Amino acid sequence: MLQTLGIRLMAGLQKLGRSLMLPIAVLPVAGLLLRLGQPDLLDIGFVANAGNAIFSHLALIFAIGVAVGLADDDNGAAGLAGVIGYLVLEAVLETLNPDINMGVLAGIIIGSVAGLLYNRYKAIKLPDYLAFFGGRRFIPIVTGLSAVALGGLFGVIWPPIQHAIDQLGQWLIDAGDLGLFVYGVLNRILIVTGLHHVLNSFVWFVFGSYDGATGDLNRFFAGDPSAGGFMAGFFPVMMFGLPAAALAMYHAAPRGRRAQVGGLLLSLALTAFLTGVTEPIEFSFMFLAPLLYAFHALMTGLSMALMDLLGVKLGFTFSAGAFDYALSYGLSTHGWMMIPVGLAYFALYYLVFRWAIARFDLPTPGREPDAPAGPAAASAGPRGPAFVEALGGVANLVSVGACTTRLRLVMSDAGAIDETALKTLGARGILRLRGGGLQVILGPIADAVADDIRTALRQQGAAVEAAPVPATVEEERAALAVAELDADSREAWLAVVGGHDNLRQVSVVATTRLRLDLADRRQLDEATLRGLGAAGVQRFADGTLHVVMGPQAAAVAKSLAD
Questions:
Q1: Which residue among the candidates 264, 356, 403, 457 is catalytic per the annotation?
Q2: NCBIfam families under this entry (predicted)?
Q3: Beta strands in 405-502 (DSSP E)
């Protein structure tokens, strides 16, 4: 049982990791803009602010990206739900406790909730008076309500977590090399929560004093020879270790997919090397390969302790990238030693990542299993041409129209349609009528599909009539009440109910249901019944059955009763 749970957990983490690729793709350019615009480089305020705009809203970006990535069909409704959920969650937390800061974790959590709720409720049907809010429109609503509940929960459990981090930060400064090791490990582990900034704020800006300057960062630039220990260890990891990890992931990808991931991994590596912005590359394998991320966290802690043992003191104003290394080198102590340590880290990261990816078949970028194709993937082109082809081609369509949920078509040869293709394109049922009439039950998208079909026909030079569409529900029911199935459809219905001898009586109930009295109910083929447009079957104790058909129930009953 535990093994099964572990497999399911790993599969979930891997799917989450893949969904993070969407927001990660925008981070490298944001990191470069943010760093290049700083006063010690180009000193262009709007460039820095352009990059900062992304990082300031990182949690919201992850909420959108994760929600869309987890949604079965990458639908934008999931992204909207992610936005709604995140805004609601932040508002609740701000009201309960303004000091709560969950960082990127809030976006990842609410994005996951939105994506999972989308998959669960995207086709939900509500009562008629609430039908407008059904389907995909329901997702932002239920996500917002879920965010209220999550906000109440985190409002209770998160303050103690933040307080514990605060207390830990005060211990680290006095714990020597052990404290540096623990600090380095926690700094990486806490990135997903955003709480690493809490640790950083203490050690970089609060603890220690030198000529009025406080904190490791400020004391380093004030000339304190003892400062820099809480920054030096990041340089080998950010400038050498993580770029080596990116190279290993590139080489581990199948040759046919290296071109697909090469550009992404190169940009992630350059961003880490030049600017010290590592979140893009870390999120690329944090969930896909958590064991490698644990190795990365331990190596960061080891680098912090090792650089201190070697007497290396380095600092940065922004992060531990090449830009800051060059700018702070003149104030460093034994700063040159970072290069050989960094090269050793490059080799170690590359070898470990390359070995572990191959040994444990880790789904790092380029090695993820291909996502299963959804129904729409069966169509080689746009929706309109695909429907035209499934309906037997241009010459087979005499007129095209639609009502609320069905295509209303007149065909030259109703037998020429490809039912399998239509169902792959989303058809829930097909109703054949006499005189070449055909209705394809699609749901609320029927009118849009009819427009697409007419557009495709015009593009192919065909002139097609618009099928008359009843103006009211009453007119629609009246039209269907006198309609009849064609011979083939009637035979298909008789086969589903077990033949003419098995059908004792058929009638219409409440205008939308067939009432069937069968000699042997076991002969009813429910699977095929749904393919003919039935939405459901209800069994009664007296042996009768009600088949939910919608307005076309009268046409079916009339044809079966003949």
A1: 403
A2: PTS-II-BC-nag
A3: 406-411, 429-432, 437-441, 465-466
DSSP 368: S
Q: Name the 3-class secondary structure at 376.
A: helix
Q: What would the pLDDT profile of 202-244 be if each residue is shown by its tens digit?
A: 677 656 677 766 677 777 877 788 888 889 999 999 999 999 9
- Which residue do the tokens 């070697």 mark? 310
Give the pair of three-digit tokens for residue 23.
Answer: 């927001």
Whole-number Cα distances in Å, 390 to 21, 266, 363: 35, 44, 37
Planar angle of CA 106, 108, 109, nearest 5 degrees: 65
Q: pTM (2 decimals)?
A: 0.50
Distance CA 285, CA 135 (A): 34
SS3 346: helix
Q: How far is Cα 425 from Cα 419, in angstroms, rounded to an integer?
A: 10
Q: Is 403 a catalytic residue?
A: yes
Assess contact for 405 and 446: CB atoms under 8 A. Answer: yes
| Residue in 241, 238, 158 with CA at minimum distance from that of residue 198 | 158
Q: What local confidence, expressed as pLDDT, does residue 170 receive? A: 65
Residue with tokens 């030693």: 337
Phi, psi angles (nearest 5°) of residue 96 = -75, -40
SS3 126: coil
Task: Please give the full DSSP string across 55-106, using - where no structure is assigned.
Answer: HHTHHHHHHHHHHHHHSTT--HHHHHHHHHHHHHHHHHHHHH-TT---THHH
Higher pLDDT, 356 or 175: 356
Distance CA 493, CA 486 (A): 11
3-state secondary structure of 401: strand
Phi-psi region of 249 (alpha: psi -120 to 50; beta: other; left: phi over 0): alpha
Q: Phi and psi (nearest 5°) for 545?
A: -125, 145
**Under 8 Å CB-to-CB from 429, ≥6 apart: which residues?**
440, 441, 530, 531, 532, 533, 534
Amino acid identity of 116?
L
Burial class of residue 121 in the structure, from the number of CB atoms within 10 Å of its CB (0-12 exposed, 13-18 middle, 19+ buried): middle
Q: DSSP assignment, residue 500?
A: G
